[in-house]
Structure formats: structure tokens, C-alpha cells
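Friendly challenge for the regulars: who can give me the C-alpha cells for this chain first? No prize, just bragging rights.
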Amino acid sequence: MEFYEKELFHIYNRGNNKQQIFFIPENYIYFLEKARRFILPHCDILAWCLMPNHFHFLIKADKRTIQTITIGKQQRNVLSEGVRNLLQTYTKAINKQNKTTGSLFQQNTKAKSVSIGPETYGKFCMHYIHQNLLKANMVEKMEEWPYSSFQDYCGFRKGTLSNKEIAFRLFGLTEATFYDDSYKSLNDEDLENIF
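First reply, four minutes later:
Bragging rights claimed.
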């Protein structure tokens, strides 16, 4: 994954062969703890959603994001390594829990820049990440799902994983307008710009 300072990125992956990756509520919490440890030190997370067989993060890259570290004799991006460590440690824990072996996630986690075009697709991506649950018919209202940043943005929970201040400023949103704006229909033609 390649990251550029001041750009927004949609980071996502799913279970190998589309298999389930979260099995019990504690799995979601554990994954978020790992995200806080391995991803948050290297970027601002603007939105996130964990679903039974995949996950999404919308991040804003900055100086921390583009740094490199030396592993062996190779220079590697710190956020790419953070994502790798997140998935590797989570997979190890799930394999232990389920008495399984092998890959849990598809290879090559995707990181798509959504800072393209005359207007950033970041706001669209944020709403897509939250609306994903509705499209999958998992909930009737987005606020019913505890494993996304939607509740935090609406003020229903005081989560600290997402940087709401940056997101509100970038996307011209407020707590007063966020809920109604989030339920607006998204243009399907724009989907190709976030994947």
C-alpha cells in the first residue's frame, strides 16, 4: 500500500473466500483494540465499520503515515506494516479461538485514495461505510449496529477511535446535520471511485 500526505484513503479487506472474520462480540472489540494499537498511531481514522466478513476504514494520511521503518534490509511504510500487524495478530487470535489454521483475510488489503476529482470522495466514502449495513440488510437503522463509527458521530456513544473534528471540518458536517445527511441516498456511479 502506498500513502501520500494529506490524502484520504479507503482501506478495506474481507475474509479469505468471503468467509466470516468476526464470530462473537468480543472479536469485534479485540479487532478495534488492535486497530487502535497498530493503525491509529500512523494516521487519523475518520470512519470505520466492521461487518461479519469484512471491514472498512476511512483515514486521513499525514506526516506520520508516510514514514518508513527498516525491516531486515527493506524500507517499509509504517501504516502498511501497521495494517499487516493488525491482520496478522487478529488472525492468530481467531485461529487459536476457533482451533483453525491458515489465512483469515484475503491477501493484499486495499487502500484506495478517495482524494480524487474536483471534489473529494471522502464524504461519500464515509456515508457508504456507514450505510453498508443497510445495503446488506443487517439492520433497519445504522445506529443499531455497534461496530461502526456511526453512533459516535451521532452522539449516541463517546467513542474516540475516529477523529470527528477533522471529518466534520473536511466534509462540512456538524453533529446537528450528520444524522440526516447520513441517510441520504448515494449515487451508485460514485462507488467505483471509492473501490
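The helical segments are 25-38, 78-98, 122-135, 150-154, 164-171, 175-182. The longest strand covers residues 44-51. Your move, everyone else.
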